[in-house]
Design goal:
CATH superfamily: Metallo-dependent phosphatases
Shape: globular
Order of helices and strands: EHEHEHEEEHEHEEEHEE
Strand order of the largest sheet: 4-3-2-1-11-12
CATH topology: Purple Acid Phosphatase, chain A, domain 2
CATH architecture: 4-Layer Sandwich
Bound molecules: fe (ii) ion
Radius of gyration: 17 Å
CATH class: Alpha Beta
């Protein structure tokens, strides 16, 4: 199966790039299933129902969220009406939506998508990510009930993401990090067949501070004083993430490529 995962869509620039480029990539690369992290798509903070619809129409099969899952208040109700959105499995007890779901690609093959929040340097003490993902992967066996499994590990610390990759090795087709908005260069297939990347990077304007117009974050760093609000940077976005080919029988990764299309970080592919 040919899978594409793209990192956090950042504001209008990120939505525009997905809208303009994803259908072409689906066609050119023969993609079977596309997962995109949408937690910053609406003005950099959360995902509105309207923007979720637009991303899904642009060729996304599943949207994942993150710590900003419900920053746009309408997502609290919208998520119940849209089965193609997955929020972190350990977001909070009683949160609307679900943290893991089995989808079908166009040929009926089953794809598990799960998302989990880490604990290190995060704003809240989220429930044990390792125990939560363990339960999900034990319920949906790779190469058994599901032909592919994608785990989005949404956290700040590279160490925690790498530990999650090793923890899931052989039980997921892909473990990929999100949240830091900066792509890492460590894409690899782990010994038991799981494709791994510490961070997918963002789909946003990289002449920025993690996707925000640089003036206000720089003011805060340089002077220690707030003056304005953060707003997403508006230059051309790079679509950033990872492409993975899996074996349909075992669900394990056969091949991967880092993806950076358009904008300042563009790289040729494949
Ligand atoms: Fe996040
Ligand atoms: Fe994010």
């Amino acid at each position: 199966m040919k899978l594409l995962f793209l990192g956090d869509v950042m504001g209008r620039a990120g939505r525009k790039a997905v809208g303009e480029k994803l259908k072409g990539l689906r066609e050119a690369w023969g993609l079977d299933f596309v997962v995109v992290n949408g937690e910053n798509a609406s003005n950099g903070m959360g995902l509105s129902g309207e923007h979720a619809k637009a991303l899904l129409e642009a060729g996304v099969d599943c949207l994942t969220l993150g710590d900003h899952a419900f920053d746009q208040k309408d997502m609290l109700s919208f998520i119940g009406s849209e089965p193609r959105i997955v929020r972190p499995v350990n977001f909070a007890k009683g949160a609307p939506g679900i943290g893991a779901k089995v989808f079908q690609d166009t040929r009926g093959r089953k794809v598990l998508v799960a998302q989990v929040l880490g604990q290190v340097f995060m704003k809240r003490a989220y429930e044990d990510p390792f125990g939560q993902i363990d339960a999900v992967l034990k319920k949906h066996i790779l190469g058994g009930a599901v032909q592919a499994a994608i785990v989005d590990v949404h956290c700040e610390a590279t160490s925690e993401k790498m530990a999650m990759g090793q923890f899931c090795d052989g039980r997921a087709s892909l473990v990929v990090g999100t949240h830091t908005h900066v792509p890492t260069a460590d894409a690899q297939i782990l010994p038991n067949g799981t494709a791994y990347l510490t961070d997918a990077g963002m789909c946003g304007d990289y002449l920025s501070v993690i996707g925000m117009e640089k003036a206000e974050p720089m003011r805060r760093f340089v002077t220690g004083m707030n003056k304005g609000r953060f707003t997403p940077a508006t230059g051309e976005a790079t679509l950033s993430g990872i492409y993975v080919e899996t074996d349909d029988k075992t669900g394990k990764a056969l091949k991967l490529r880092m993806v950076r299309v358009g904008g300042r970080l563009e790289e040729a592919m494949p």
